[in-house]
Specification:
The protein has a single domain, classed as Ribokinase (UDP-N-acetylmuramoyl-L-alanine:D-glutamate ligase, 3-Layer(aba) Sandwich), CATH 3.40.1190. About 30% of the residues lie in helices and about 25% in strands. The chain contains eleven helices and 16 strands. Strand 14 and strand 15 form a beta hairpin. The longest helix is centred in the C-terminal third of the chain and has 15 residues.
């Protein structure tokens, strides 16, 4: 029996941090035709599914990761990281006719980053799911499905039939299909969005006076909207709660959303109320951005309860 199964991307992340990177007019820049020093680098697993699955495990839950990967010597980074944190990787499917997704992440001195991603040709499909085994979980934590809303709809139907709760953090490819996704989000138990994703979903700027009212109209029972260094809001039972970020030095902002969402859901599984879950999410994400990479700073259950 699992507490939660994470569904979505499993990638290999290559982090490069250098003092030579600078931010100019919202652009990450470095000198052209030059050879520069790297201050920090890291090769590790990434993607919303592996990041959240590791977070759940550290927070005292039995977790698994369901992803599609390709053929690559880099796969060892994925399996080794999951094994180290006792995450079940038996749901991971390998397509030997494709490549494993990987990203090169350029991290500026202030912790902001730009991500270059190389994706495989194929995405998760219903045929990759061990549906009978998925019945043995309390929650499904769904990250981006690369725009496959037919699969998302099938997962929701399966979850409802088997009394499984669903968390959903859509990606841009899902959000681009607004008319199809809006009727579905009311069926999930927890909807996680960052500010830009929320704006895409309701087609409204966060500065508009009706922004929060329109989010309430989605009728998802529990919604969280993160806003980077501006903190996070949750909407629950027609009420709205806010938390600022914790004062911390940002080394790398990668994984902030995954760490927030996974800690929030973990708190719910541990019978915490939504306001406490909000604090768990804020605390976990503050720790993650203090380290290079999306996993190094993930908190344990003992640490997050302090």
């Amino acid at each position: 029996m699992y507490d939660v199964i994470s569904i979505g991307a499993a990638t290999v992340d290559i982090f490069i941090k250098s003092e030579v990177f600078s931010i100019q007019k919202k652009l990450l820049t470095l000198p052209a035709s030059s050879k520069n020093e790297v201050d920090q680098s890291l090769f590790c697993s990434g993607g919303g599914a592996t990041n959240s699955a590791v977070s759940f495990s550290r927070l005292g839950l039995k977790s698994a990761c369901l992803s599609l990967i390709g053929e690559s010597y880099l796969n060892n980074f994925i399996f080794d990281d999951l094994k180290k944190d006792k995450v079940d990787s038996s749901f991971i499917i390998q397509n030997k006719k494709d490549i494993t997704d990987f990203s090169v992440i350029l991290v500026a001195p202030d912790g902001s980053r730009s991500i270059l991603t190389n994706r495989g040709k194929f995405g998760l499909e219903a045929k990759h799911f061990k549906w009978s085994l998925l019945k043995k979980t309390k929650w499904l934590y769904i990250t981006s499905l690369e725009g496959n809303l037919d699969l998302f709809e099938q997962i929701i139907g399966f979850a409802k039939e088997n009394n499984i709760k669903v968390s959903f953090n859509p990606g841009k490819r899902e959000l681009a299909q607004r008319k199809k996704i809006i009727p579905l989000v009311k069926l999930v138990d927890f909807l996680l969005l960052n500010r830009e994703e929320a704006e895409m979903l309701i087609d409204l700027s966060h500065q508009h006076s009706q922004f929060w009212d329109q989010l309430h109209q989605l009728k998802s029972p529990l919604i969280a909207v993160t806003n980077g260094r501006e903190g996070a809001h949750i909407l629950v039972d027609s009420k709205q709660f806010y938390s600022p970020i914790l004062n911390t030095h940002a080394v790398d902002e990668t994984g902030a959303g995954d760490s927030f969402g996974s800690a929030f859901v973990a708190a719910l599984i541990h019978d915490q109320d939504p306001k406490d879950a909000l604090f768990w999410g804020i605390k976990n994400s503050a720790s993650v951005v203090s380290y290079l990479g999306a996993k190094a700073g993930l908190l344990t259950l003992k640490q997050i309860k302090k």
